[in-house]
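Question: does this match?
>
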Amino acid sequence: MTLGAAIGATVPVVPEWADANDADSIGGVMSAMLKPAGGFGKFVTLIIALSVISNTAPSIYSVSLNFQILIPKQEKIPRILYVIIATGILIGVAIGAAEDFLSSLESFLFIIAYWSAAFCGVYLTEWIWFRKRNAESMDPEIWNKPKELPSGFAALGGLIIPFAFVIPSMDQVWYVGPIAKVTGDLGFEFAFITSIPIYILLRTIEIKYFRNGRL
């Protein structure tokens, strides 16, 4: 991260790096930086490019594992099939995003930020409001017993419903909401703030009517 910050700060003052950044974004900068090293520089550039694959592999593994956890019966399907499907989707998305990698990455990360804000709101509300920060209220023995676990509709509602406020408040390259046009991007803040009362309401209903008073 320190190296990345140093490179980012230096690019504007090194004409060759700036031109490479305008032409080929981050990859162009790395190639221009290593060019003076000759053949060895090209080799290092190749290794850096291939390192992207090694960073992607654990994520694809997690995707395959999550599919099996999400729907228990899917554990009978060989995990390699999920890996192949996820990789195919990834390649398709990458082909389109590669034309403008940096802006595509930034847009994607901003969207994830909205989701993560709502997730934090839901998680903190569950931990502080409902469980009173008591770790003993969580029973690890029932992790794989659906009938003893919460239905999940409260958590999903706490994640999805806030987007009714997030979308009008987001300011992205591909869309600027009516609220954001006046105030700037407030999607992250709205996602976090609105998820809290929504989750409290839905979780209270879930506990009372579907959990017989159990958390």
Remarks:
- The mean pLDDT is 90.
- Residues 100-215 form one domain.
- The chain is about 70% helix and 0% strand.
